[in-house]
Amino acid sequence: MHILIIGAAGMVGRKLTQALLAAGTIAGRDISALTLVDVVAADVPVSDTPISALAADLSLPGTAQTLAATRPDLIFHLAAIVSGEAEADFDKGYRINLDGTRLLLEAIRQEGMKAPYCPRLVFTSSIAVFGAPLPPAIPDDMAHTPLTSYGTQKAICELLLADYSRRGFVDGIGIRLPTVVVRPGKPNKAASGFFSGIIREPLNGMEAVLPVDDSVRHWFASPRSAIGFLLHAAGLDTAPLGQRRNLSMPGLSATIAEEIAALERFGGTKALRLIRREPDETIARIVAGWPQNFDTGRAIALGFRAETSFDDIVRAHIEDELGGQIGNG
Amino acid sequence: MHILIIGAAGMVGRKLTQALLAAGTIAGRDISALTLVDVVAADVPVSDTPISALAADLSLPGTAQTLAATRPDLIFHLAAIVSGEAEADFDKGYRINLDGTRLLLEAIRQEGMKAPYCPRLVFTSSIAVFGAPLPPAIPDDMAHTPLTSYGTQKAICELLLADYSRRGFVDGIGIRLPTVVVRPGKPNKAASGFFSGIIREPLNGMEAVLPVDDSVRHWFASPRSAIGFLLHAAGLDTAPLGQRRNLSMPGLSATIAEEIAALERFGGTKALRLIRREPDETIARIVAGWPQNFDTGRAIALGFRAETSFDDIVRAHIEDELGGQIGNG
């Protein structure tokens, strides 16, 4: 099985690459080759599996055709301009997030006109397709109500994925990831960055800023769960999905207070004292428009699984990123 | 006020043109000029109001810019490839229904970059954005679940309209029309054609085929109501819409049996006998996937109004199309 990962250089893409190489198989079939694509060339891990890395912009003419022409059996499309940038640069957001995805779908369809071809396509959508006012737990049949251009672009891609799948041009599945915490690496400027920061930094002996109230509720899954969703989606029987090809992934609905309580259980009062409360009204207002809880019965019935406590999320971070050891002890 | 109608040559476009000219004003302002655009030049009615008619394809480069450059105050965008054709010709459907609308929105945005410009844009969406399985009455916050490429394209345009409005590039409102009956003119090949045919033909002394069971329920409004929706949307204060710019219009949920009972009240047993029952499994299957009823509380609160009985719909047809007289008597 030849696998193509678009957006391979990002955090999720790198972890997915490692997981695929570690498994050696997916959906019961051997992985024969891996193609890694991103706007910057992804690092190529040492492996017996043939891996090629390509620096390419999916939104430029020819890129999607070149990729589809290699007829991968399975495609992960993870590439996107993030929310803040898509809001700041309207043209770039639509070009990468909408046109890039449409060009990919269209290249797959054109390839299928030359000779039968209908690859599995796993697309990472986002809970940003939903915006306030929202019900207490958002069901899969809630309307797309994005409050950002990023969320609009993801919602449009969900519709395209469903239509191209219905027509038999691709075998698509779109998965809406919860906010992924604890993200490894350095703090970033994303409005959601503090959700990871207030665990990651204190466990590393560093201070972290908390810009919102402890009562704020949000929707979480670990990077480990995110990779689990992608692998499960790749092997899933899509027939039970019917025409509804996009799913909210399971996650944990938890408050900042619950998150901090988990931090204390692993890092003690020493870690706790490293959280500096610095209210930021702008961030608080943005976060207030975000989804807080989902009804993911459909995804759970299909076998998707996530953490059920913040302790599990912190433990996954310590095991996967810190070698099982907390660095501030 | 300069008004642009795109899709002016169709049934709704022609009736809208007549209604605007008859009123002379809209939203309390005089109509100073009317531009009628369609792929074929629309008929230009005799009027004191300056009217220009243009045959142009919105999906071709330059058309949208040319139209936006005239800076109309109010734009009605009614143009679309219908459901059956969009399903039969995948490329054409996406080109006209998606790309055409996106080019229009983009031309308006570009025009606004030269000098402030934010016209009201009334867009006709469709109940085809919803497909089975559906709840007994579809609320506005039901997910887009189209089962056709046409419905997918309309759903995507709704999302674009909302995002361009949120960003302040246009003042958009999307209205999902019920199935419009009784359509004047000749029978057509649309799967929904019989809903009009079984009223129109018998009242005209002609036979009409009924391909589905009398128990079939569907969602209706008269052409008169459709024009009323458009005019009301043109003058509506959009602030109460918030970020949710797309609305299901009010309509009448009725069965074929109720429709036939109304026919009998106006046309007698003579009209009744002109309905020939000829079950068609293909049409029955298509119709079974269509919405049957909506919760339109939101549109009603905003002042949109439709018929509340099939008698009202038949009466509107007799008054507006038959000069108040039934032709088979």
Automatic annotation (TrEMBL), chains A, B:
InterPro entries attached to this UniProt entry: DenD, Epimerase_deHydtase, NAD(P)-bd_dom_sf
Domain of life the protein comes from: Bacteria
UniProt key word Aminoacyl-tRNA synthetase: no
Ranges where the NAD-dependent epimerase/dehydratase domain occurs: 3-209
Keywords attached to this entry: Carbohydrate metabolism, NADP
GO terms, molecular function: oxidoreductase activity
Matching NCBIfam families: ErythonDh (NF043036)
Protein name: SDR family oxidoreductase
Species of the source: Devosia ureilytica
